[in-house]
# Entry
Amino acid sequence: MSAPAAAPVWIDLGPVDSIPPRRARVVRLAGRRIAVFRTGDGAVFALEDRCPHRGGPLSEGIVHGRCVTCPLHDWVIELESGRAVPPDEGEVRRYPVRVETGRIRLAVAPAGGTTP
# Structure
């Protein structure tokens, strides 16, 4: 029987208002670029900042509804799932994120673990 996984550590990324509605900002974490998005209705999502098509910077794309359109080739990626909208195929890694008392928190792995 394996040991239970250690709980992730939640790091503070600052106030939710630091990201304008329908925009994103990039967080660099353990050599990764993570795009943190804020939708027009205030929801916050975090995805790998790399389109599954050709690696375009999703953080520079257009946020609309619960999706982002890659600035390079117009692929549309769902913010909730990280999946490309058909007919395109592929997906990017999602990261756990939440808003608490007006601040954005991103889950990172405990020491020696992998990011959730």
Observations:
- The CA atoms of residues 22 and 39 lie 5 Å apart.
- The first strand starts at residue 9 and ends at 15.
- Strands lie at 9-15, 23-29, 32-38, 44-48, 62-64, 67-69, 76-78, 94-95, 97-100, 103-108.
